[in-house]
Amino acid sequence: MDLPVYFISDIHLMLKRTDLEIKRQEVLFNFLQHIREKGGTLVINGDLFDFYFEYKDVIPKVFFPFYYEILKLRESGVKVHYVLGNHDYWVQDFITETLFDNTYFSDTEFIINGKNFFITHGDGYLSWDTGYRILRRFIRSRIFIWSYRWIHPRIGYAFARWISKKGENYHHSEEYNKKISDEMTIHANKQFSKGSDYFISGHYHQAIDLKLKNGKLLILGDWLSFFSYAKFDGENLKLHFWKDNEKI
Ligand SMILES: [Mn+2]
Questions:
Q1: Model confidence at 248, in pLDDT bands (50, 70, 90)?
Q2: Mean pLDDT of the chain
Q3: Nearest to residue 219, comparing CAs of 205, 233, 235?
Q4: Could you tell me the distance, in angstroms and rounded to a whole number, from the CA of residue 92 to the centre of ligand 1?
Q5: What's the gap in Å between 173 CA and the centre of ligand 1?
């Protein structure tokens, strides 16, 4: 992978292009332009889209400005990797073949400059999340995806908008956030004992850059309130905050 490697997650590109959403995407596009100018590699660690469902012959048009930015980025020589999240798992060949260099349907590992990166979107990890893990198995099953595909997109997407509205609040109490980072620390330490140097997760909408005894745990924040990204320059991995967000 070309250096530097940038990691972002939980962008949640919305189905509704409000003024705020357009401004927010502009901030993201400025960040992508920055990468285009500097070169390197981009890893998107899940929940890029607030909802994404692709049909055999049809893709959602609302994300067209984003598709264009990614193609420009790739044309400049930057490779873009995409780890699917719980909001945007239902992709087909437009995502895997046309838009991104590589798409990952589950946790993955990269070796970059001799360092071992364990990359996960992060959902399904919490010990008390058994109900979610069962639901996830169902909504990722062939039968569910096959059935959903036969629902008219007008209905399929209306349903998604409704779900998305219900889950709008990503702000949690400090106590809850602490519980999550403690639990993710346990998972990270497990990976470090298997040889990983870095454990990178998204999903939890908190920005954490935590040096542990045998490695580093990063929770990437999001592009709804943190505008955070991690950068690996070949030596160090660090969490940063994109300053451009002052405009919104
Ligand atoms: Mn998520």
A1: low
A2: 94
A3: 205
A4: 19
A5: 18
